[in-house]
C-alpha cells in the first residue's frame, strides 16, 4: 500500500500554541488517530488501511507506532511515551503525560480534523476526548473501556465523550445499553492477526532450534512498567525448569520499540531467550511452541488463535494490586476465561506469580497432552464469539467511522 499523505505541510511533530489560529493546509478529509501502545498501533494500522480502501483521499494525523508510521502517519510524539500501566507506576510520569496531552489537544486544534479516533489507552484517550468535547469535532473511541471489569462508577463520566463507541467484545453493547450508552460491536482485531499462518519448521530452522527442544513463549507485556516485574520471575523459573528440560528454549515476542529494554534486562540470563520482533517470526514462534506464559490481555487471544496452551501470570506494584482487588468486579482476568465464563487457562497472579509455581505449571503444560487439548477445544469456542456479522473487524470499524464521518455535523453530537 502506498504511504498515506500527512495533513501537515511543515513536517513538524509538535504544535506551537502561538499558531493555533492558523490551520495547517488540507488536502482531503482529515482523520486524527491516537494509539497509545503496541496493540493499539496494530489496530490503528489495520483501521487506516480499511478507511483508505473506502476513501483514498483521507488524510491521517495523530499518534501511533511503527505500523501506523509505515502507512504514512507522522507521529506527533513517540507512542511509547504513553505506554504506562498501573496506578502507582504512572505517578512519576504524570507531568510528562500532561505535557503530551497538551500537545495532542493543540495539534487537534491546529489541524481541525474532520474526525478524531482514539484507540484503547483509556487513561490518556478519554482525557483527550474530554478536552476536545466543545470543539464540534466528531469523536470515535475504538475499544470500549473495560468498566465492566473494574471501576464501573466511571460510566457516569462517559456521556458526551464520544459520538460513537466501538466494542471488541460481543457482550459489551448490551452492558453499556443497560447504563444508557450505545456501543457497537465490530469484532475483535485478533481475528485478523494472521497467527494461523505461522510455520513451526521455519522458526526452528531460522533460530537453529533442535526439532525436539521444547519451545516456551514468554510474554511479559508491551509496557515499560510490566516487563521489569515479570522477567526476573521468568529467569528463576527457567533455572528450575532447566533441570527437567535441559534443552528448553524460551522465546520472547516483543514490539520493536521495547526490544532494547528487554535485551538489556535479559543480558545476564544463563539461558538466553530468542527475542522476536518481526510479526511473521512471532507467528512462526507460536506455531513451534508447546506452551506459553503470558500477562493478561489481548495476548491471551493471540495465543488462543495460535492454539498455544498457556497460563496467565501477572505481577504489579503491591499497592496497585491492593487497590485493584477492591475495584475488580469480574471472576477472571484472562480474556479467554472471561469470554468462556469459566477458567479455561490457569491464572497465577501476584502472590502466585512465583518461579516455583510458574515452573510447575509450565511442566504440566509440557507433559500433559490432555490439559493442552482441553484448552484448544475451548479456544475454538471463544474465538467464534469474536467475529463481526460481516467482513473483517477492521472493515466493520471503518464502516462505522465512515458512517459517522458522512453524517451532517448537526447530527453527530451525542451530548
UniProtKB/TrEMBL annotation:
It comes from the Bacteria. It catalyses: a lipid X + a UDP-2-N,3-O-bis[(3R)-3-hydroxyacyl]-alpha-D-glucosamine = a lipid A disaccharide + UDP + H(+). Residues 1-22 are annotated as: Disordered. InterPro entries: Glyco_trans_19. Its EC number is 2.4.1.182. Gene3D superfamilies: Glycogen Phosphorylase B. SUPFAM superfamilies: UDP-Glycosyltransferase/glycogen phosphorylase. The keyword Transferase applies. GO terms for molecular function: lipid-A-disaccharide synthase activity. Keywords: Glycosyltransferase, Lipid A biosynthesis, Lipid biosynthesis, Lipid metabolism, Transferase. Pathway: Bacterial outer membrane biogenesis; LPS lipid A biosynthesis. NCBIfam families: lpxB. Belongs to the LpxB family. Condensation of UDP-2,3-diacylglucosamine and 2,3-diacylglucosamine-1-phosphate to form lipid A disaccharide, a precursor of lipid A, a phosphorylated glycolipid that anchors the lipopolysaccharide to the outer membrane of the cell. This is Lipid-A-disaccharide synthase. It comes from Gluconobacter cerevisiae.
Amino acid at each position: 500500500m502506498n504511504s498515506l499523505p500527512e495533513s501537515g505541510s511543515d513536517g513538524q511533530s509538535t504544535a506551537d500554541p502561538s499558531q493555533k489560529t492558523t490551520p495547517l493546509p488540507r488536502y482531503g478529509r482529515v482523520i486524527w488517530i491516537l494509539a497509545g501502545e503496541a496493540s493499539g498501533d496494530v489496530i490503528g494500522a489495520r483501521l487506516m488501511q480499511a478507511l483508505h480502501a473506502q476513501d483514498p483521499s483521507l488524510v491521517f494525523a495523530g499518534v501511533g507506532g511503527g505500523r501506523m508510521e509505515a502507512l504514512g502517519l507522522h507521529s506527533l510524539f513517540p507512542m511509547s511515551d504513553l505506554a504506562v500501566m498501573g496506578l502507582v507506576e504512572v505517578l512519576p510520569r504524570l507531568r510528562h503525560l500532561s505535557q503530551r496531552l497538551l500537545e495532542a489537544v493543540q495539534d487537534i486544534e491546529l489541524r481541525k480534523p474532520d474526525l478524531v479516533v482514539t484507540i484503547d489507552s483509556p487513561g490518556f484517550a478519554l482525557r483527550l476526548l474530554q478536552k476536545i468535547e466543545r470543539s464540534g469535532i466528531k469523536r470515535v473511541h475504538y475499544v470500549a473501556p473495560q468498566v465492566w471489569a473494574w471501576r464501573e462508577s466511571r460510566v457516569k463520566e462517559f456521556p458526551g465523550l464520544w459520538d460513537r463507541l466501538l466494542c471488541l467484545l460481543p457482550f459489551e453493547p448490551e452492558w453499556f445499553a443497560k447504563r444508557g450508552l450505545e456501543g457497537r460491536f465490530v469484532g475483535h482485531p485478533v481475528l485478523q492477526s494472521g497467527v494461523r499462518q505461522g510455520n513451526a519448521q521455519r522458526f526452528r530452522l531460522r533460530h537453529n532450534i533442535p526439532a525436539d527442544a521444547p519451545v516456551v513463549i514468554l510474554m511479559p507485556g508491551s509496557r515499560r512498567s510490566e516487563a521489569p516485574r515479570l522477567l526476573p520471575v521468568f529467569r528463576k523459573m527457567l533455572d528450575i525448569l532447566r533441570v527437567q528440560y535441559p534443552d528448553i528454549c524460551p522465546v520472547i515476542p516483543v514490539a520493536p520499540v521495547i526490544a532494547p529494554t528487554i535485551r538489556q534486562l535479559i543480558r545476564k540470563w544463563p539461558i538466553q531467550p530468542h527475542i522476536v520482533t518481526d510479526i511473521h517470526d512471532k507467528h512462526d514462534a507460536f506455531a513451534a511452541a508447546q506452551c506459553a506464559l503470558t500477562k493478561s490481555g489481548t495476548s491471551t487471544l493471540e495465543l488462543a488463535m495460535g492454539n498455544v496452551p498457556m497460563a496467565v501470570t501477572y505481577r504489579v506494584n503491591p499497592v496497585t494490586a491492593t487497590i485493584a482487588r477492591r475495584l475488580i468486579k469480574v471472576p477472571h482476568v484472562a480474556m479467554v476465561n472471561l469470554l468462556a465464563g469459566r477458567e479455561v487457562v490457569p491464572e497465577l497472579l501476584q502472590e502466585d506469580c512465583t518461579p516455583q509455581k510458574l515452573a510447575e505449571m509450565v511442566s504440566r503444560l509440557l507433559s500433559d497432552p490432555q490439559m493442552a487439548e482441553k484448552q484448544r477445544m475451548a479456544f475454538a469456542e471463544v474465538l467464534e464469539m469474536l467475529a463481526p456479522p460481516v467482513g473483517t473487524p477492521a472493515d466493520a470499524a471503518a464502516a462505522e467511522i465512515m458512517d459517522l464521518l458522512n453524517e451532517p455535523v448537526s447530527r453527530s453530537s451525542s451530548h
